[in-house]
Write a structure and sequence with these properties.
This protein is of the alpha+beta class. The chain has one domain: Double-stranded beta-helix (4-Layer Sandwich). 17% of the residues lie in helices and 28% in strands. The strands form five sheets. Strands 1-2-3-4-18-10-20-5-8 form a nine-stranded mixed sheet, covered by helices on one side. It has a four-stranded antiparallel sheet with strand order 9-19-11-17. Strands 13-12-16 form a three-stranded antiparallel sheet. Strand 3, helix 1 and strand 4 form a beta-alpha-beta unit. The termini are far apart. Bound molecules: fe (ii) ion. The site of fe (ii) ion (FE2) has 3 residues, from loops.
Length: 295
């Protein structure tokens, strides 16, 4: 099955196969973003020209899906390194015994009284990964190890398209604007204190360093101040921008299966997660690659 297991919104055209080189096949979702890559075993070392093909496809489609993968943490980190230097994040509030410093676990499981990962089972609001840092994530590499029978889908929004179709009055309001990005105050199960609550100031419209295209860059839907605006004005503008950027035509939704690997570009995508039953098991392993300072 192609990416149709994730709901492709927007164009419903049949997904054409756009590249065929030996075994490696790239099948666009037919929606506003995303492509499935077939014929690659990510547990094996990736060599040129495969890495270049994957990076080019990632820049073109913004998100790549690989089905049926089985990855050790070392292999997951090695894969992420093709997309950038991994972030080492230190403010987690879950049991990290035995984990590599580059690996984050997204899970609702509690074992022996301690959380085995962050994120819980609830809805996770729209955001872009690591935007609270001076150098936010370029790529997120996310491996679905255990997936609940229902719920927990991840939705992605194409922030290039959202910027391009933004009304001129809203474009005028955001042009040159900067905003304070934070991590939303402990909602992901992280402990919050003055040393563990990083924040950074970034432009609300950023230019992608590799494609040269402009994209909305909004941090989290539930937080963040916009410079030059009073808190109520900033809150209203932020909500107008998110309302626009998450319209169905900009959104593609992924329904996870165990063994899925997603690699997406946070410089031009935002994402959110739907809730799932708290008594179901969900375990995803993540590495984020450190990107550029947004401009
Ligand atoms: Fe995220």
């Amino acid at each position: 099955m192609s990416m149709s297991a994730g709901k492709a919104r927007g164009s419903a055209a049949a997904a054409p196969i756009t590249a065929l080189d030996g075994e490696l096949t790239i099948v666009p979702s037919g929606g506003t973003l995303g492509a499935e890559v077939r014929g690659v075993d990510l547990s094996a070392p990736l060599e040129e020209p495969i890495v270049s093909r994957l990076r080019a496809a990632w820049l073109e489609h913004l998100l790549l899906l690989f089905r049926g993968q089985k990855l050790s943490d070392e292999q997951l980190v090695g894969l992420a390194r093709h997309f950038g230097e991994p972030h080492i994040v230190t403010f987690f509030d879950y049991n990290r015994a035995g984990l590599l410093p580059e690996i984050e676990v997204i899970s609702n499981i509690v074992a022996e009284g301690r959380a085995a990962g962050g994120g819980g089972a609830g809805e996770l609001v729209w955001h872009t990964d690591m935007a609270m840092f001076e150098y936010p994530a370029s790529a997120t590499v996310l491996f679905g190890e255990e997936i609940p029978p229902a719920g927990g889908n991840t939705r992605f929004s194409n922030m290039y398209a959202a910027y391009e179709i933004l009304s001129q009055p809203l474009k005028n309001r955001v042009e040159g604007r900067r905003a304070l990005f934070d991590k939303g105050g402990g909602k992901l199960g992280y402990s919050v204190n003055s040393t563990e609550n990083p924040c950074a100031v970034h432009p609300v419209v950023r230019t992608h360093p590799e494609t040269g295209r402009k994209a909305l860059f909004l941090g989290r839907r539930d937080s963040g101040l916009i410079q030059g605006l009073r808190a109520e004005e900033a809150s209203l503008l932020r909500e107008q921008l998110w309302e626009h950027a998450t319209k169905p035509e900009f959104v593609w939704e992924h329904q996870w299966r165990a063994g899925d690997v997603l690699i997406w570009d946070n410089r031009c995508l935002s994402h959110s997660r739907g809730a799932f039953a708290s008594n179901a098991r969900r375990v995803l392993r993540r590495v984020t690659a450190k990107g550029e300072k947004p401009v």
